[in-house]
Amino acid sequence: MSEMFNKIADALENSWLTQARPNQLPPDGDWSIWAIIAGRGFGKTRAAAEFVSAEIESGRARRVGLVGSTASDTRDVMVAGESGLLSIGPEWSRPQYEPSKRLLTYTNGAIAMTFSAEEPNRLRGPAHDLIWADEICAWSNLQETYDMMMMGLRLGKRPRLVISTTPRPLKILKDILSREGQDVAVSRGSTHENRDNLAPSFVNSIIKKYEGTRLGRQELDAELLEDTPGALWNRDLIERARISVDAVPEMTRVVVAIDPAISNNEDSDETGIVVAGLGVDGKGYILRDASGRYAPVEWARIAVALYHEHRADRIVAEVNQGGAMVETTVRAVDPNVSYRPVHASRGKITRAEPVSALFEQNRVHLVGAFPALEDQMSSFAPGVAGSPDRLDAMVWAITDLMIQPQMPNWGLYELARRGELF
């Protein structure tokens, strides 16, 4: 019995209420949505998980929905992560988790089911009295998932939604925040507030590298940044270009475009890898963004895998920096792929302008959401520093599919301009 008392005393001493910062605790008031808008590493996952757990333990929540960007994100972050529902709270109140059923069962009979934005239709049937939506700005089917989620939030006297996300200026999030003080309560915070609990390597490499930059203001300080003046794309244009995967026609051509980084370390630029297709309707479709920091053999393997997965017609790669090494690396993975090198003879703005014009003419669509790529698009303007590698790859892909075919002498022009025609 004394052992049980000791456990209870220890749990009370180390309870979330004694550890949390004020902006990690649920706000007062009669709100329906609590939006935790905070930077990376702030502790928003822990704050949301603790709120969900407390609502279940009190009996106020009996049927809970957990919605993440992907099935693995929901499982690995919201459920089994370091700050997930299986990790917090005392041992005796933790739920039983059945991954195959996407189900958590609590000792008081309450249940929580996991969902992902990749499959919004799974939210059509179940009804909930509480939903936790994590990182909604990264959801691939944001509008459809949000609509299905809210239609299912109909049980009990006071159904509630808690959102934990790093902000991006998306229409849904802006609409939610515009209701602050009405049915929406908002808690805001930055990465810096929790730096004492973050790994020194994160503080030294990530925070110091990005603080003060536009990306840092968004990802660390959680600022809701609007469009960059002079940017070739704005958020309204991007939203108009977005379609669901169900609306994609048959493709007549598909390319995988690579904008390779010239180094491979923690300070390296990303390698842009974008898959795009030309539909039977004559429009371009951005199908995949697989960009990231990779060693050369890694980005080559990813690009070749996407080439086969999407049955692409060719791989297009910028070779200004890597030269013949780029093709050699790709062919070391698969010597039989169709490959075409491209040279960046003009500035990034000049190359991107025709592609931006195609977006304005409603001739290029984004299939789902590509948060990192869209951030580069909406902040890409003359005089803005940075290397928009994802954007570069997208520009190369659309140029190959839609711009170069309209200019039959493009290749001769480029050779003559570089003095290589004769």
Automatic annotation (TrEMBL):
Residues of the Terminase large subunit gp17-like C-terminal domain: 257-399
Lineage: Bacteria, Pseudomonadati, Pseudomonadota, Alphaproteobacteria, Hyphomicrobiales
Name of the protein this chain belongs to: ATP-binding protein
GO MF annotations in UniProt: ATP binding
Keyword Transcription regulation found: no
Originating species: Methylocella silvestris
Keyword field: ATP-binding, Nucleotide-binding, Viral release from host cell
Stored InterPro entries: P-loop_NTPase, Terminase_6C
Pfam families: Terminase_6C (PF17289), Terminase_6N (PF03237)
Domain of life: Bacteria
